C-alpha cells in the first residue's frame, strides 16, 4: 500500500493504493464516491471520464492514480453544485444539451476548461476543443450552443 | 427480496440534491411488488391519485434520453387537469408498470402515450361523475381543472383527493373516453424542460453504472477470441494473486467476480482459458457479395405490386438499374452495457437499462429457471441505445454470475465488449430497376431487398450468456422491419417491391435505429434523382410531380424554402452540391424532408456536410423541444453512420472494437442545421425517434452527386471510396 496525497475538489485527500497503476476513474467512482465521471472506453478515446487536473482536461480512465501525487483534481461535482452551478452547467441546462447524458460530464468539463483559456471562443474553436469528446446521441449542436451561451457570445 | 437503497439515499451519499422526478428507483422504497395492478386494461395500471393532491403515473415505456419523461407528464397533466409539477413518473419497473410493449419503433408517444392519454381521460370522466354527485350539478357543466372538479362557468370545486382519496378507480381503460380539444391544451405542445437534464449536467444523475446494491461484487465475463468457440479448460491459478477473485464457469460461460471493480477487470484480463472451434463464415469485405449471392434465401415475398412491372419495364424507352449496400453497424453506445442482478432463494431482481423490461422479465426468468412471478426488473437509465444493444446481455451475465455465487453482481462491459458483442444492425443489399417513357415519365419501378428474415413471433432477441450456459432461450433473429421503406413514396403506375429473406446473418442482429429504412430510402431516393436527371427535371420538381399526398408535398415544399434550394437539372460537379431526401416513415407515419449541402475535397475525397435543412411532420406534437432534439440526433447520428460507420470483422470475430476502428461523427463534422417542425394538433401524434434518420443518407448521396457527378451506393462514404469512384470516372470519361 502506498499513500497518495492530492487535492480533490478543493480538499486535501489521502488515498491508500494497492495498485499504483489503477486508473484515477476507479478511485473516484468506487473509493471516493464521485460518480459524475463516467467509464466510456477506458482507452482515452471518448472523453466521458474527463476531470480537470491542475485545470487541464484529463482522461481519468487512463491516468494512473500514482501519477497524481500533489496535483489538483476537479471533478464535475466540484465544478458546480445544484445551488451554485458553473456557468457552463447553467448554459447546458438552458439549452437542454443532453440526451442520454452519458457524454455530458466530459462535455461540461472540457468546455469549462476551454472557457478558462479562451473566454470568447468562436464556433470553430468550440468544435476543435470538443473534437475528441464523443457523443453518440447527436447532441452536438446544442452543446455548441451551450458553450457559446456560457461565453455570452452569439452563434454565427 | 433484497431492496436496494433508494436513489434518494444513493444520491445523498454523493452529496447530491438534484432529484427532478423520482424515476423507477422511487419504487425501490415502495412496498412489496404486487400490491398495485399492472393490468394494461385497467386505469389504475397507469395512474394513481394521492391524498396530498399529487399523482403518480406508471409507464411501461421508458425514457432513453428521448424526452418521454417530460412528454408523459405533459399528456397526463393535460387530460387529468392537474398541474404538471404534481405528477411523478415511474418507468419500466415490471412490478409497478403496465406492459406497454418495448420502447422501440418510435412508438413511445403514439402507442404508449396514447394509452396513457386514454387512461387519464377515463379517470377524468370518473372524477367528473363523482364531482357531479358531490356538487349536485350536471356532469356536462363540470371540468377537471387544477386538481379539482369545478363548474366550467366558475365557482367552488372539489379536489380530486376529496373525491377519490387513494383508493384507485377500479375502472377499465375506455379507449373512447373523450379527450381534450387541442385548442384548450395547456401543456401538450408547449415547452416543458426535461426533468432529467439538470442532474445529468451537474454530474448527479444516477445512471445504471452508478448504482450500488448492498453486498454487491463486480463481475466480468470472459469471452473467446473466436465467436461461438467452446471452452476447453480454465487455469484458475492464473488469477490466484488477485484478492477475493473467483472464477464462475457454466459450460461455455466463463466469468470472474471480485469485491473490487479494478480487481475484477484485472482478473478478466489475466484469466487463462483455452477455447476451441468457433468463427464466422465471411469477413466484412466479403459481406455484400455474401448477402447478395452467398446467403441462403428462405423465400421471396412480394410486398407491394401495382400494374404490370415486367411488361412496362420491357417496353420502356430508357432503363436504369442500380445496386446499394448498407453495412453492418453497431449501436456503439457511448457507455458500455451495465446491469446488476441479485439472484438467490428462487428469486431474481435485475436492474438494467432494457428498452423492454417486461419482455425480458420472462426471458431472464426462463433462462434462470425461476418463475416470472419471482422476477422483477427495474429500469435504470443507461447510455443511449438506439434499438437493442448489450443492456440485456449484461443483465444476463450478471444474473448467471449472481445465481452462481449467491450475491448481487454488477457487470459492466468493456468498450471492446460493447463494440464487439452488441447485437448489430444487419447488412442489406437493395437493387432498383426503373424505366422511363420517351417523354421522361416514370413507367415502371422495382425495388428488391436482401435482408435477414425475422423469426415469426420471437418475443425477445437471444442473449449471449444463455447460449453459453446452455440455458433455456428461444433462438431466432429479430431485426425490426428491415423491408419497410423500399416502396417509393411516389405515384408510380407499375410497381414491384420484393424482399428476398435470408436465413442467416453472420453477426447477431438486432434493431438499430430505423432498421433497414435508411438504406432503403438511400436506394429509392437516390434512384429518384437518377430518374429526375434523365427526365431533365430538377430533383424537387420531379418529386412533386409524382406526389399527391398534401402533407408530403408540404414537407418538401417547405424544406426547399428553408434550405433556399437552387432549382437546377444538371450536377454542378465543382466540389459543392445539394441534395434532397424524403420519406414517409414506415409508409404511413411521420413525414420528413431533408435538404443537404456538401463539399467534397477533390484531393482527399473527403466529404463534409456543411448545411442541413429539415422539415418534420409527426402530427400532433407533445413536446416541441423533445421532438427537435430527436430530429437533431437523428440527423447527426445518421450523417456519421453514412460517412464513417462499418463494423469490421474477420472470420474470427469483430475487429473494430474501439472508437479508432469504428469512428463516428465528431464535432468538426457538425453542419449548420435548420429544422422546421410542422405541428398538426388535430392529427394523431406519430413517432419522432427515428423518422428523420431515414432520408439522411439519400440527401447526402444526392448532394455528393451534385458536387462530383459520382453516385455513391455503398455505405460508408469514406474518402477512399470517393477517390476510387473519381478515378473510375476519369478513366471512363478519358
Ligand atoms: S472513458 Fe476515458 S476517454 Fe473514454
Ligand atoms: S447525450 Fe448520449 S452520448 Fe451524448
Description:
The complex is a heterodimer of chains A (156) and B (734). Chain A folds into 2 domains: 2-75, Roll (Ubiquitin-like (UB roll)); 87-152, [2Fe-2S]-binding domain (DNA polymerase, domain 1). In chain A, 34% of the residues lie in helices and 16% in strands. Chain A has helices at residues 24-31, 76-79, 87-95, 104-117, 123-129, 140-150; strands at residues 2-8, 11-17, 50-53, 56-59, 72-74. In chain A, a hairpin with a 2-residue loop joins strand 3 (50-53) and strand 4. In chain A, helix 3 packs across helix 6. Chain B folds into 3 domains: 7-196, Aldehyde oxidase/xanthine dehydrogenase, molybdopterin binding domain (Aldehyde Oxidoreductase, domain 4), CATH 3.30.365; 213-278 and 331-421, 2-Layer Sandwich (Aldehyde Oxidoreductase, domain 4); 428-732, Aldehyde oxidase/xanthine dehydrogenase, molybdopterin binding domain (Aldehyde Oxidoreductase, domain 4), CATH 3.30.365. Chain B has 19 helices and 24 strands. In chain B, the strands form 6 sheets. A 7-stranded mixed β-sheet of chain B has the order 9-10-7-17-14-15-16, sandwiched between helices. The longest helix of chain B has 28 residues, at 108-135. Classes of the chains: A alpha+beta (156), B alpha+beta (734). At the A-B interface, helix 1, helix 2, helix 3, helix 4 and helix 5 of A face helix 6, helix 7 and helix 17 of B. Bound molecules: FE2/S2 (inorganic) cluster (2 copies).
Layout of strands and helices, then pairs:
The complex is a heterodimer of chains A (156) and B (734).
Chain A: E1 2-8, E2 11-17, H1 24-31, E3 50-53, E4 56-59, E5 72-74, H2 76-79, H3 87-95, H4 104-117, H5 123-129, H6 140-150
Parallel strand pairs in A: 1-5
Antiparallel strand pairs in A: 1-2, 3-4, 3-5
Chain B: H1 7-13, H2 43-46, E1 47-49, E2 55-59, H3 68-80, E3 87-91, H4 108-135, E4 142-145, E5 148-151, E6 158-159, H5 160-164, H6 197-201, E7 217-221, E8 230-235, E9 246-250, E10 253-258, H7 261-270, E11 272-276, H8 287-294, E12 297-306, H9 309-315, E13 318-326, E14 338-344, E15 347-352, H10 357-368, E16 375-379, H11 391-405, E17 409-412, H12 415-421, E18 428-436, E19 442-452, H13 464-469, E20 494-502, H14 517-534, H15 539-545, H16 550-563, E21 576-584, E22 591-600, E23 607-617, H17 624-643, E24 672-677, H18 696-708, H19 719-733
Parallel strand pairs in B: 2-3, 7-17, 15-16, 19-20, 23-24
Antiparallel strand pairs in B: 1-2, 4-5, 5-6, 7-10, 8-11, 9-10, 12-20, 13-18, 14-15, 14-17, 18-19, 21-22, 22-23
